[in-house]
Amino acid sequence: MPDLVLKNISKKYGNTQILRDINLQIEDGEFCMIVGPSGSGKTTLLNIIAGFIKPDSGEVIMDGNILNQLPPRDRSIGMVFQEYGLFSHMTVKRNISFGLEIKKCDKKDIDKRVIEITEKLKIRKLLDKKPGLLSGGEAQRVAIGRTLITDPLFYLFDEPLGNLDANLRLEMLAEIKRLHLNLKKTFVYVTHDQVQALSIASKVVIMKDGKVLQKGHPRDVYNNPGNLFVAEFFGAQSMNLINGTIVSEGRNSIFSGGGLKVELKGYPPPEEPEVVLGVKPEDVIILDKQAGNIKEDGVGKVSSFEFLGDSSLIYVNLEQEKPISIIAAPEIKLDSNEKVKIKFKENKIFLFSKKHGGRLYP
Q1: How much is the pTM?
Q2: Strand duo 312-317 + 298-307: pairing
Q3: In the predicted structure, residue 91 carries a pLDDT above the cut 60
């Protein structure tokens, strides 16, 4: 099976630059999720891969062949949209089989494929219904089945779960992951929901303002954000970011800001003293009241406390405007306005440039 390569892809509408020199390689069989806020260019990039939009410059390459001049029907790519786009006057069976019917495939082969696919998607009982009688999840399964039946080399998904409620999104996400494992083909999936990317992608691509900011395995991107945007954007809970200054003190550095004074052991002082300290909510420790021998990094008051079942989400006000978020053990109990001491895990602290947003350390 071929790899998919995007080489120097750029696109502009009027004076607005949508994509800026995108370079990306998607390996055979990967589940690649393209993640970013609205307006980052991710859907435009997907449409360029599909052939619905032509890039102003750059190449879409599959298995060494440049696809730029090929129409969508000749690219062996199947696409699932957020809006299901089902034919309202056709039954589920006709909606799924239509792609093969217009190719004049044998009717017995079509019927066999429809049965196989609807069994796989658990919608065989819906074959005689029309789209108006389907739930959102059922309609999305039909849309996926319509794509599966053509047996493309690549599958493209454009926010396919955006119209579903939270519980159904989780169910359909598991269904799509199962399909990927069974089909062993390349999936390229666009979403603004980074939690989806964390849970099922084998590669994640973070986009902002038409540029790729970081790419890699979700675990690597989450644990090693390359800049401020990725640090704050990617994850179920944003990384805590605190503005401050840093000075050298012996062999170590001292960060001061937001009501905190944090000793950074082994951190060389950066050339620029104005920095942003970053720490993930799960790497903030609330010190036990009896832990008098441990020096805290800051003291604040609990502004809110949320019990999540398997954990507790706590917000603590320091001197900075935005409270620090902390993910703690479920058994911890704190009251609003209760005074707490906090400490950051030493090997889990990041420093970013306040000037250009790049990561300074580690």
Answers
A1: 0.86
A2: antiparallel
A3: yes
Say whether both 175 and 246 belong to one domain.
no
d(CA 255, CA 276): 9
Please state whether the peptide bond connecting residue 273 to the residue before it is cis, i.e. omega within 30 degrees of 0: no
Exposure of 259 by Cβ count < 10 A (0-12 exposed, 13-18 middle, 19+ buried)? Answer: middle
Q: How far apart are CA 265 and CA 16, in angstroms?
A: 45
Q: Are strands 154-158 and 186-191 parallel, antiparallel or unpaired?
A: parallel
Q: Which of 220, 134, 125, 140 is nearest to 173 (CA)?
A: 140
Pairwise pLDDT comparison (268 vs 310), residue with the higher score = 310
Q: How far is CA 276 from CA 309, 318, 356, 358, in A?
A: 32, 16, 11, 10
CA dihedral 185, 189, 194, 200 (to 10 degrees): -20
Residue 351 DSSP label: E
φ/ψ (deg, to 5) at 47: -70, -30
CA 154 to chain centre: 19
254 and 107 co-located in one domain = no
What pLDDT digit, counting tens, does each position of 111-128 carry? 899 998 898 888 899 999
Are residue 208 and residue 164 in the same domain, yes or no? yes
Q: 291: pLDDT confidence band, cut at 50, 70 and 90? A: low
The angle, 0 to 180 degrees and rounded to 10, between the axes of the packed helices 92-101 and 107-120 is 130
Q: Which of 194, 263, 237, 256 is nearest to 328 (CA)?
A: 237
Residue 20: give the domain boundaries.
4-228
If you average pLDDT over residues 243-269, what whole number do you get?
84
Count of structural domains within the chain: 2
My answer on whether 118 and 219 are in the same domain is yes
309 and 183 housed in the same domain: no
Q: Which of 184, 199, 228 is the last residue of a domain?
A: 228
Please write the tens of the pLDDT for every residue from 15-73.
999 999 999 999 999 999 999 998 999 999 999 999 999 999 999 998 888 999 999 98
